[in-house]
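Handout, section B. The chain below has 166 residues.
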Amino acid sequence: MAVLIAPLMMFYHSYFVISVFVGHSVKWEAQEREGRKVPWKVAIKHTQIMSCLAVAWGVTTFYFTPSLFMWLLPVLVGMVLAAPVIRLTSSDKLGIAMRKWGVFIIDQEVNECKALKRLRVAMGYFAISQHKAEVPALPDNVWQSMPEQVLSQKPLPMRHRLPNSA
């Protein structure tokens, strides 16, 4: 999967760097991670230039240097199949099926870490009621109620809120 996704990331990172050098404004916005599949239309819209460039690059390389084409094939496959890769990797059903089959998981997701297991067992013998925490009393002359912040205004700097501050 990393071999398929790496060329996509390489393309987008290169695009952002070149855009900055050219002077275009670049936004790197947070992804939507709500378990929804990316629609085909959106996946194709965001990958069509990359896929076309990969096909052109592959045809040119195959024509002029077939041995180089074989070396570039893993990169080209990821770029040409960018839309299906994005669509499939956004599928929560595929993710659940892969987890069920044991694909794309690490050992700690299946087997509890030994250190955490020992800690969990040891915590069973530890009773919090035996250890009373003493909270030191705050002197009355230092006590101050917390002001309620008005959300339409910027908060005041700390020096304006504390009494006797210089």
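Note. DSSP finds eight helices and no strands in the chain. Compare this with the example in section A.
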